[in-house]
Amino acid sequence: RFDEVQSQIELIAIDDVEAAELEREEFENNYFEIRSYMQEIINQSKATSSNGHNVSYGATSLMNRTHLTPIPLPKFNGNLQDWSSFFDIFQAMVHNDEGYTPAQKFYYLRSCL
């Protein structure tokens, strides 16, 4: 649904295409980050409900993460000599974070290329 609406919006003439693309990318990054946090809270709630523990600690730590200033993902410039450095940073920020689904990780990787 989001992609349908976004595609319709993109058909409208935009004066500053580059700024619009950056704004869309920022919005999508925020959207998927928040969605991931919410899914993690839901998963923790389900797991805790099944064994009778309180979920407030996990929810609080996730909420604290949302107040941090977002760290921009690195952009790969196409130079093979820079790949190792780029991928190390990407792995630390996205790939090794179990809070992201494989689809989200793939989306973030594509947005960096």
Description of the molecule:
InterPro entries: DUF1759. The protein has 113 residues and is mainly α. The chain folds into two domains: 1-70, no CATH class; 71-113, no CATH class. It is built from five helices and no strands. It is flat, with a radius of gyration of 17 Å. The two termini are 25 Å apart.
User: What structural class results from the helix and strand content?
Assistant: mainly alpha
Helix content: over 70%
H/E series: HHHHH
Mean pLDDT: 77
Q: What's the domain count?
A: 2
As a whole number of angstroms, the C-alpha radius of gyration is: 17 Å
Number of β-strand runs = 0
Which residue ranges are poorly predicted, with pLDDT under 50 across at least 5 consecutive positions? none
% residues in beta strands = under 5%
| Bulk shape | flat
Q: What is the terminal separation in angstroms?
A: 25 Å
Quaternary structure type: single chain
Main pleated sheet: none
In DSSP terms (H or I, runs of 4 or more residues), the helix count works out at: 5
InterPro entries: DUF1759
